Amino acid sequence: MTTRRDALKQGAFVAGLLAAAGFFPRMALAAWNATAFDAKSVNDVLKAYGASAPAESKDVMLTAPDIAENGAVVPMTVATTLKNVKHMLVLVEKNPSTLVAKFDVTDAVEPNFVTRAKMGQSSDVYAVAITTDNKAFFAKKEVKVTLGGCGG
After folding, report:
1. Nearest to 92 by CA among 72, 69, 112
2. Which tens digits make up the pLDDT trace of 120-145?
C-alpha cells in the first residue's frame, strides 16, 4: 500500500530528474522574447515582435481606470474584434519595462484578457493587437497614478 508520503517522495524524485535533464527551463523560456521585455519604448517592443508601424483602431479595446489610486495594482482589460490576431500586448509607456503583458492568440482563444499592471507614474497605456501578417493595431488611454507602484 502506497502512503501519501511515498507518493510525494516519488513525485519529488521525478520532478528532480526532469529539472536535472533541463526539461523545465526550456519549456519556460520557449516563448520568452528578452528583447521585447527589455525594450524601453513602444516602437522597440513592436520591432522585437516583427510588427509594422502601429495604426490606431476602433477594433482594439482597452479598459483601464482614468485614475489609479494605487500604481501597484492597476486593473486593465484588452480585447479585439480583429481577425487573424496572433498576439495581444499591454504596454505602459513610462514603465522601466514598457511591455507589461503578452498574450498569444489562436483560433481557439477569444482575444479578451484581464490583467493587472504595476505603474510607477502616470502614463499612456496601450493595447496592441498584432495580426498574423505582422500588422499592429492599437488603442491608447492615459492612466493617472496617485500612489506609485514601481518603487514608490
Report:
1. 72
2. 899 999 999 999 999 999 999 999 99
Q: Where are the beta strands (DSSP E) in the chain?
A: 55-56, 60-63, 67-68, 74-80, 85-92, 99-104, 112-117, 123-131, 136-145
pLDDT digits (tens, 9 = 90+) for 65-105: 999 888 889 999 999 999 999 999 999 999 888 999 999 99
Distance of CA 67 to the CA centre of its chain: 21
DSSP secondary structure string, 91-115? EETTSSSSEEEEEE--TTS-SEEEE
CB 140 within 8 A of CB 61: no
Q: Cβ(125)–Cβ(143) under 8 Å?
A: yes
Give the start-to-end residue ranges of the domains of the chain. 1-30, 34-145
Instruction: Give the right CATH number for 34-145 from 2.60.40.2470, 1.10.3210.10, 3.40.50.970, 1.10.10.10.
Output: 2.60.40.2470
d(CA 60, CA 86): 13
